[in-house]
Design a protein that fits this description.
Blueprint lengths: L1 H21 L19 H10 L5 H13 L15 H14 L4 H23 L1
Bound molecules: heme C.
Length: 126
């Protein structure tokens, strides 16, 4: 047990030095904008309209924002096309409380994930 202490301290010191030496070159400065960059494809929107008629576009972009901000706190953003719809529904149920989503947020996330998945999986399969 005692042996572990020294490497830990050494790593701690290295980290400190590293932080100091890179302090001035921080590139992440003023405007973090997780929103606005995502635009659903026409194909995805078509699917949204078919499955949940009347859904505003904002629900889908917000779903994406939730996915890339609240769902990446504990792990990477999983590839949406990497799982079946059934698996996603199960995971969204499981993960929404972990991410402390409101029912509205959960619904937006669900619409985004399922429509994105369908739009991009079908495109790939054909
Ligand atoms: C508080 C931490 C935490 C948050 C926040 C969180 N997850 Fe997770 N997630 C986990 C853990 C831990 C696992 C692995 C164990 C498990 O399945 O419970 C996991 C597993 C997953 C998996 C399964 C991956 C696989 O290979 O089977 C998916 C998909 C997933 N999370 C999606 C999400 C989504 C979507 C959100 C946002 C609503 C989210 N997670 C938010 C902790 C979190």
């Amino acid at each position: 047990m005692k042996k572990i202490k020294y490497p830990a301290i050494a790593i701690g010191l290295m980290f400190l030095v590293h932080c100091k030496s890179t302090k001035t070159s921080s590139s992440e400065t003023t405007t973090p904008s997780p929103v606005a960059t995502f635009t659903p494809s026409p194909k995805q929107l078509e699917i949204v309209e078919k499955r949940w008629a009347g859904t505003p576009l904002g629900d889908i972009t917000e779903g994406q924002t939730i996915f890339t901000t609240k769902c990446v706190k504990c792990h990477q953003a999983y590839e949406i096309t990497g799982f079946s719809e059934k698996k996603w529904l199960h995971e969204i149920d499981d993960m929404s409380p972990k991410a402390k989503l409101t029912p509205e947020e959960k619904l937006k996330l669900t619409k985004h994930i399922l429509s994105y998945r369908e739009a991009n999986t079908v495109a790939k399969a054909n």
